[in-house]
Amino acid sequence: MRPLIRRFAPPSRAAFASGERIGRVKRARALDPARGEGLFLAGPKPLFHLLFCLLVLALAAPAAAHEVRPAYLEIDQTGPGAYAVIWKQPTMGDVAIHLTPHLSNGWLERAPADQYAAAGYLIRTWKITDAAPAPLAGRTVTIEGLRDTITDVYVRVRLARGQGVEAIVRPEAPTLTLAVANGSAMAMSSFLMLGIQHILTGPDHLLFVLGLLLLVRDRWMLLKTVSAFTLAHSLTLAAATFGLISLPVPLLNALIALSILFLAPEIIRSQRGGTSLTIRHPWIAAFAFGLLHGMGFAGGLKALGLEPAALMGALVFFNVGVEIGQLAFIALVLALRRSFRLMAIAWPRPLTAAPTYAIGVLGAAWVFQYAAVMFGGAG
Predict the structure, then answer these.
(1) What residues are paired with 321 via a beta bridge?
(2) I need a labelling partner for 261 at 20 to 30 A (CA). Which of 42, 74, 285, 356 fits?
């Protein structure tokens, strides 16, 4: 009977000295947990990773529930004493976050003339008749529930004789006093801040960028990868904002989440010394998935309903804001990495893999969550 285990005799010193080829016998080496090897071997480490994954899953639902697309309140004077009011708030499938607009003159306390859902938004409209000479001057807009979200509200008031108001109401200050004036166009700096806030409050986009930073270590390759991601999302941001391309919101969010999930095993493979197309040419994956992320960015600008004349300037400043926020995040991560290296901090070995597992767990959780919304809405 042939033995199950073949035994090899150790090579002689003479063999080494003469350079004799002794065959392809790989010498065993100890697994290195810092490279992600052996992280699920026996011992307390599986318990650590189980608890860590459960913690990340517990945080995944509220993180995904935060809506970063802005809501929209428009008041148009359609004739003497006649006004049309439109309220749009973002939804995810059949679920809408709790946001209710109030106007201090009582207009919005009436039942809406119409209410319907369209393109990821719950829309309510009112037809108002008010013969007062200036029924909106000095009135206050309050958005109930805004403090509990990270959603902005874009307010636009357009009256006769070119008067109006354009402003953004933010969660930290959910009340706006209407100061009606001529030439009410919102400052472009507001769109710059909107772009910065849009990416810094979007955990999905930041996790993808973090995944790229964990995957790419070479500085030149990192520059190429980040540049490819920037170029790609700038192209689709512009195309989606002008209505040239579009995807259903739940499908788009599911694909963005899938891009995050895709990076996690690639990071682990890279840490273990493996290779793949993504590891060798990460800029290709960054460009491909950047096209999806750009369409996600566009959701924050399309909802504002800007006039075509103002849309180009708003797009430029919004995109610059997105880039500023992205570069600030990258600089922060690189600075922290450099600081930890200089301080020679000895992290617990399982903890070194925590960011990669967080990316994978959150990406998977969001894929399932958005897929449930997508197929639930289809049913």
Answers:
(1) none
(2) 42
The CATH code of the domain that includes 172 is: 2.60.40
pLDDT of 96 reads 76
User: In terms of residue numbers, what domain contains 209?
Assistant: 54-64+202-378
Q: What is the pTM of this model?
A: 0.71
- Please name the residue that has the structure tokens 């033995």: 3
Same structural domain, 267 and 348: yes
What is the reported pLDDT for 330? Answer: 92
Residues 167 and 231 in one domain: no
Total domains in the fold of the chain: 2
Q: Are 274 and 150 members of one domain?
A: no
Q: How many CA atoms lie within 13 A of 279 on its CB side?
A: 13
Residues 229 and 124 in one domain: no
Percentage of the chain beyond pLDDT 70 is: 76
The verdict on 257 and 298 lying in the same domain is yes
Q: Same domain for 75 and 58?
A: no
Tens digits of per-residue pLDDT, 225-236? 999 999 999 999
pLDDT of 68 reads: 60
